Known about the structure:
Blueprint: E1 4-9, E2 18-24, E3 27-32, H1 46-49, E4 65-68, E5 71-74, H2 77-89, E6 96-99, H3 106-119, E7 125-126, H4 129-144, H5 153-156, E8 161-165, H6 169-172, H7 174-185, E9 189-193, H8 199-202, E10 206-208, H9 215-228, H10 234-240, E11 241-242, H11 244-251, H12 258-265, H13 269-281, E12 285-289, H14 291-294, H15 299-312, E13 322-325, H16 332-337, H17 354-364, H18 379-384, E14 395-399, H19 403-406, H20 410-419, E15 422-427, E16 439-442, E17 451-454, E18 459-463, H21 476-486, H22 498-508, H23 517-520, E19 526-527, E20 553-554, E21 573-578, H24 594-597, E22 604-607, H25 609-614, E23 622-627, E24 630-638, E25 646-650, E26 678-686
Parallel strand pairs: 6-7, 6-14, 8-9, 8-12, 9-10, 11-20, 12-13, 14-15, 15-16, 21-25, 22-24
Antiparallel strand pairs: 1-2, 2-3, 4-5, 4-16, 17-18, 18-19, 21-26, 22-25, 23-24, 23-26
Helix pairs in contact: 2-21, 3-21, 3-22, 4-15, 9-12, 9-13, 9-15, 12-13
Amino acid sequence: MTFTQVTTTCPYCSTGCSLNLVIQDGKVIGTAPYYRSPVNEGRICPKGTYCHQFIQNPDRLKKPLIRKGDIFYEADWDAALDLISRRFAAYQPDEMAVLTSARCSNEDNYLAMKFARGVLKTRHIDHCARICHAATMVGLFLAFGCSAMTNSIPDIGESDCIFCLGSNTLEQHPLIGRQIIKARARGARLIYADPRFTPTAVQSDLFIQFYSGSDVLLLNSIMGEIIRNGWEDNSFISERTAKYESVRKVVLQKRYEPEIAGPLCGVTPEIIRTTAEWIGNAERCTVLYAMGITQQTAGVDNVRSIANLMMLTGNMGRPGTGVNALRGQNNVQGACDVGCLPNFFPGYGKVSDGAAHRTLARQWGFPNGICEPREGYDINTLFERLKGNSPEIKAMYLIGENPVVSEPDPAAVKEGLSNLEFLVVQDIFFTETCQHADVVLPAACWAEKEGTQTNTERRVQRIRKAIPPPGDAKPDTEIICALAAKMGFAEQFTYTDTRDIFNELCTVIPQYRGMTWDRVSKPEGICWPCPEPNHPGTPILYTDRFSHPDGKGVFYPVDWKEPSDLPDKKYPLRLTTGRLIWHWQSGTMTRRCKNLTDEVNEGYLEMNPTDAESLKVRSGDLIKVSFRRGSLLCKARVVRDIKKGTTFMPFHFIERATGNLPEDSPDSLPRMSEYKVAAISIEKIQDAEP
């Protein structure tokens, strides 16, 4: 019996853990540790441990499918691509859109973006990072001139004080959570803010059980206390930042004093004072945050407040410091880097910049140019434009995305997809979104292709092919190249292998310019920016200057505004959403892994015992959860670990689609719906089964 092992990178969260896939007789039968990675050093979470189980699932798409009426029929590749090329050629550029995926490789996303802008000539391209971290992109770019995580994952273990909010790190990013534990073993303090007493809270030295939506109120109150006590870093502020006085004026308002702000946050004034003292006096403090901060209509304000706090205390540009946004999916950072955004080219050149537009058009060599040099529609706007009897968008090419589950308001998404004249979906399973497609293309999964992905700390690493794809499924890059050739652009999509694609994207992304296939194939990968071949990469950003032209970070005053969907008499409870350690995103992959579904395989609602008692609800009871836009049924879980007046639901389960819950009040900058603060009511429907 012969076993082989192939080293690759986990396909789930943005930590980017390395592991070995174990192969026997042409099948992946398990995983094994890979100890040389500086990210996870051989450790792996439950999702990574069982990531092999969905690969050979019998539900995998194996042949192209073409819809005729209400039935899908198997087709060969020529027939499917001929149909797609003919239909796409019939539309104007602004009538088409391309959605890519943060779970696809850099090479997949780069070619999809190049196809959209060069072949279809459309400016409408986006991906699901908008649902995860659009607020980070906007907020950190305005503060620092760049929107990326500032420090490396191993660097977190060097901190003296870790302030974690909006992230249940030990459950959502367990191997980053390991760095928290390493730091605490060295004597560091962990301050943790969350409405729930999570596994991360168990590790905390100070637990702030606050109300969702009061983040800016809490942060401003902390900053006010730091300034009143003289704990700010005046030399850092004067030498490396601008517009400090505007923030100082705001946070010293009476409304942010701990005695006033504390009760509104749901915490005592003493907790705010202690937090300010620990952060203000730490030699090296770092902030970790995730979607608990960004998936709010106030997401940009939350992010800018965090940036203000770290600049106020001089905790930037050094080991153990920084603003560390923990991305949701394995390649959110990479998909943004390669330009799968409506407002940025690869490397974050603005699409409205004529010089950047001309440079990219020249490098790609499209004889009749590329898309217009103006911003396209983001994913939220696209679905708005699909409403009504005469939608502006007529055709869509959707690669690796399942917006019926992942987007807010699934009913509106379904309506929009149904209004399309032509929809192509490219995926590894027949998802809920595929049901609306005219053509479904079978793609290879991450274990069946070569490529790279960029994790949350900007580390570019390899994924490696372990086995062939099933049936007639193909890697996304091969599908895109074949479709481009059908549409008359074979010359612009001629690559010998994935290495050629990576080499090309490195020439058009300044931050990747010094990388090579061989360099990123080493266990440590490379953190961008890496501007030249001999450059070692950059684990820590802003060591001597920020990315703004003058090199300074910019303070921005943020006043707290109440969330738009607060409890009232009709909807008296708050609801927040999040992940479980057993599942990932829409569950398309993890819910096909037996060991993970054996743990949890249905949605539920957590509630505090006091709230449950007042409603005569017990664990296991079937309840009706009503909100301003609809309702759903699920089972109750009564737990002491959640704040009174607050409830929680995981968002992985289409049967209990939490995307229906947020009010449709998108933020004016990143256009984010309110996932973390929704007002609900609960009605008991049926007693738990005995």
